Amino acid sequence: MQLLRPSPDELPDLAELYRTPPGPWLRLNFVSSLDGAGHVDGRSEPLSGPADKRVFGILRMLCDALVVGAGTLREEGYHALRLDAERRAWRVGHGMSEYPTLVVVSARCDLDPAHEALADAPVRPIIVTRAAAEPGPLTTVADIVVAGDEQVDLPAAVALLHERGLRQILSEGGPRLFGSLTAAGLVDELCLTLSPLLAGPGAGRIIAGPPIDTPQALTLRHALLAEGLLLLRYSR
Ligand SMILES: NC(=O)c1ccc[n+]([C@@H]2O[C@H](COP(=O)([O-])OP(=O)(O)OC[C@H]3O[C@@H](n4cnc5c(N)ncnc54)[C@H](OP(=O)(O)O)[C@@H]3O)[C@@H](O)[C@H]2O)c1
Fold this sequence. Notes:
Oligomer: single chain
Shape: globular
Low-confidence stretches: none
CATH architecture: 3-Layer(aba) Sandwich
CATH topology: Dihydrofolate Reductase, subunit A
Number of domains: 1
Distance between the termini: 21 Å
Number of helices: 7
Bound molecules: NADP nicotinamide-adenine-dinucleotide phosphate
Strand order of the largest sheet: 5-4-3-2-6-1-7-9-8
Helix content: 10-25%
Number of strands: 9
Strand content: 15-25%
Structural class: alpha/beta
Order of helices and strands: HEHEHHEHEEHEHEEE
């Protein structure tokens, strides 16, 4: 047992602390209330805080692709995936492209092509869908990647992203996508911020979907404490 409390130790470089192993990796980043809510009134913003936002920005800086479910794109008010000059310079200095690629997972392709995150993206986003979908006008703003016939086949989708050189994958959810990724055994890491808030009953958890057969054990890599938030990093 260890006691965690605010310590005067100097914070290590966050980019170094959150570095992933070389090769393909799939990391999830979520924030939750103490009583397990994944949102307050449909948004995760009230659960967050400056330290969580700082790590959120670092994780975006470190990824090749940012993958989100269509529900999160629709409800979380996503903007175009633009990084500030410092993070862009860091990426270029580390042999990465200037910006990560936004990838949206959608079975129905019921997305607005004028959505800022798509229409104003600095690099052409990708929409991952199934063969039965009809992406229509979305083809003007995004590359369409088809994985699966009636359902989106997530292992196939991830393999197709790897083929495009998008190997370090960050997913910001949402809960249904997290449930499917977990069921498919694709999750290498979970970064979870615990927010010091009781949101009360009603809100869904950070994961949703059908039950899985076997719970997956993860190992704690580090815990950061800031402003009463606990930032936990777990991986396989
Ligand atoms: N606490 C957090 O850190 C956090 C993070 C993200 C989101 N959220 C919250 O989560 C809520 C949204 O939840 P959600 O479960 O609707 O989000 P979601 O998983 O982002 O979106 C669900 C939609 O994404 C597509 N999708 C997801 N998984 C799929 C799969 N395996 N195959 C095919 N399509 C898939 C489908 O889109 P189509 O309907 O277009 O087919 C589905 O309707 C919001 O209230 C948001 O605030 C919280």
